[in-house]
Design brief:
The complex is a heterodimer of chains A (350) and B (156).
Chain A (H helix, E strand, L loop, with lengths): L5 H6 L13 H11 L8 E5 L10 H11 L3 E4 L2 H7 L23 E3 L6 H16 L7 H10 L3 E7 L3 H12 L4 E5 L8 E2 L9 E4 L5 E3 L6 E5 L3 H10 L8 H19 L21 H12 L2 E3 L2 E6 L5 E3 H7 L8 E2 L8 H4 L1
Helix pairs in contact in A: 2-5, 3-4, 3-8, 5-6, 8-9
Chain B lengths: L5 H9 L4 E5 L2 H4 L1 E2 L2 E2 H12 L3 E3 L4 H5 L7 E3 L2 H7 L15 E5 L3 H9 L5 E4 L10 E2 L5 H15 L1
Parallel strand pairs in B: 1-4, 1-6, 4-5, 6-7, 7-8
Antiparallel strand pairs in B: 2-3
Classes of the chains: A alpha/beta (350), B alpha/beta (156).
Chain lengths: 350, 156
Amino acid sequence: MLASASDRIAADKFRMRPGRGPLSHLEFRDLTFGLVLGGNGPGMVSLLGCGHYPGADDELAEMAKELLDRNCVVMTAGCAAGDVARKLDQETGKAFPEEYPSMATLKGLVNCGGCSADTHIMASMFKFAQLGGGISGKANFDQVADYSLNRAPFVVIIWGPASDKMMAKASGFARVGAPVVFGPSGFKFKRMLVGNKYTREDWTMYDGLDGSVREVDPSPPHLIFPVETKEEAVTMAIKLCFTTCALREPRLSTIDNYTEIYQKYFHQLPDDWTYYLRSPLELHVMKRMRFLKTLRDEHGWEVERTTASRVRNRDGELVTMEEYINQYGIKQGRYATMLKRLIMREAVKE
Amino acid sequence: MQAFDAQDWARQIREHKNPLVVAGEGCEQIRLDGKPLVAYAVELAEALACPVAATGNILLAAQEQKKKVKIKKMWLAELFRYLEEDWEDSILEKRPDLLLLIGYRPQMVQGMAAGLQDVSIAHLGPGAFAPAQLTMEETPLVEWKRRLDELVAACK
């Protein structure tokens, strides 16, 4: 086999950036403004995998391109970084990684290093919580995970064979609050963490100030999710960038990208995009009128010019936007948590 | 190789009130004597007057068959998850009682189907899926095509 492929092996040369190792604090401070506090990046997507599967030559690079075009930060490591770098621009002769800055910034493509450098990606989630949320990482795993899951749009795509190593990594990423998309052999992975957006009683959070339980949007809807194709993988990755406590601009960016990529690959609007909409201001300004028309015609919202006077809640009742926001989701900027012990105590409030 | 009785399959399928054809990525990749597997999925759904849950990227290919069948993009893992609790998805008003899986290798659905309760499974290939109530065997493509043709005709 090696002899028959000797020509191909000899020609298999490509340029890639060296592994960066751990990323700097400065980049994550900047990234907080790009992903959480404002900005228009849907999230940080990490591409990992063991290679050696049909389509390895270009599928990861195509996924990376789609995500980078959508303003994501793309992190890679190990074999996946090699697969991403294999793509060559035929016109310019540039290698794919040469087209993007090797920085943790929007539209940045970072090679963290060898396979074990996946840990730098997970470490960056802790760094993000520390720098962006002021959360101590010392003996404080669950608060970091709570922050990652509900505020920081991190997603991991594991592409290729379902190796034991990748299965362990998937579990680790899910535990720290980064949803994992696993494909195309992800169905062999017996541990899936798939949510059901229709069981509304499962989607609740504590208001971090008064401790009340609130119904929230189903985001992120899954933690470990298997997919069949690369198109499903990137679409689901964008969908998993939804976070419950997202502020307006990141939510706008995620809704915009989710509806757009779903229409691009599946030629229809997703059936759940309205679950994530908290205000017409979270619709992209260039598409707002079109979406408001869809909301009026297909979902029964009452629309007046560029805004919605009454909206349909998840019970199907027409309510004012203020009532809707009071009943559903987390108000922008309000502290919320999934862990009862992280509700702010009276002494702290005083 | 066991004898395949299309009439018996059709009778067993018709015993269910809410069948759902679930068509996967294999439907676009596999052709049986030039006919794409997705065509069988849609024809079967039309014969049974049931919708098609199109997973993978096959939605467009299924719509291009131009049959009067409701087709919706779904995600395989989500579909199995919805079956664990009260059914609410718009593809069917009531919870399906039979899944006709087509275009999935057995190892893709094995883990998820194992936990299902009160839902029958008919696996139409490729490969043989032992836990299913009805399953095609590992057959040559010519035989597989003959069986699918007979099944579609028997279900009409």
